[in-house]
Amino acid sequence: MTLIAPSLLSADFARVAEQMKSVADGGADWLHIDVMDGRFVPNLTWGPKIVGDLRRVSTLPFDCHLMIVEPERYVDEFIEAGADTVTFHLEATPHAQRLLAHIRSRKVRAGISITPQTPVAMLVDIIDDCDLVLIMSVNPGFGGQSFLPRSMVKLREARALIDARNPACLLEVDGGVNANNLRDIVATGVDAVVMGSAIFGTPDPAATVRDMRSLLS
Ligand code: DX5
Ligand code: ZN
């Protein structure tokens, strides 16, 4: 079964608890929480405090996507706030293997993400240390962008690398996924699909999650 991970980036932040409940009622599997620092990406969102506050109002697993420089400075705060997955960017640290091992040692899922410019081959020497690989299918920073077609090739390459080397690792895609391209994207073998504007940009996010699920069955 493909996991559906609505991205809170496109939610109404003034009604975030209600919007989280809505996607949970619709059958979402994870909540994707985008953390941006205005340095790694040209946008700002939220930090560990809000993750901890949201943790108290939802039982869904929290899939935290850190788009920040020097992620090693902050991963523990997100783990302590209640993250179930902590994903950071390969491009944001020179010591990705060490950070993956550290996140694993804290008993949460250790994820690595690559931006559109980074080849999947850059993961070859750290794939054994990953519990999740997140392929960005847009340039990170904003919701509502168009899916970059080259990402289809990268998803197939990532699937092959994971199958050959670390089959327990999950493959996730993030950026520009919507009802029109969902089935083709999932056919590349992804395990988890992030969707922001395609879910929270609709009047009834619960119904939209159900619609997305039915497209996958
Ligand atoms: C973008 C974020 C995404 C974003 C996706 O940098 O990492 O999670 O919310 O939004 P959509 O699904 O609208 O492309
Ligand atoms: Zn994201």
CATH superfamily: Aldolase class I
N→C terminal distance: 9 Å
Structural class: alpha/beta
Question: How are helices and strands ordered from N to C?
Answer: EHEHEHEHEEHEHEHH
Main sheet specs: 8 strands, parallel
Unreliable stretches (pLDDT < 50, length at least 5) are none
**CATH architecture tag:** Alpha-Beta Barrel
Helix content: 25-40%
Strand content: 15-25%
Describe this structure as you would to a colleague:
The chain has 217 residues and is α/β, with parallel strands linked by helices. It has a single domain (3-215), classed as Aldolase class I (TIM Barrel), CATH 3.20.20. Helices cover 33% and strands 19% of the residues. It contains eight helices and eight strands. The chain has helices at 16-25, 48-55, 75-81, 96-105, 151-165, 182-186, 197-200, 205-216, and strands spanning 3-6, 31-36, 62-67, 85-89, 109-114, 132-136, 170-174, 192-195. The protein has an eight-stranded parallel sheet. Strand 4 (85-89), helix 4 and strand 5 form a beta-alpha-beta unit. Helix 1 runs parallel beside helix 8 (205-216) and helix 2 (48-55) packs parallel to helix 3 (75-81). The protein starts with a strand and ends with a helix. 42% of the residues are buried. The structure holds D-xylitol-5-phosphate and zinc ion. D-xylitol-5-phosphate is lined by residues 7, 9-10, 32, 34, 65, 138, 140-141, 143-145, 174-177, 194-198.
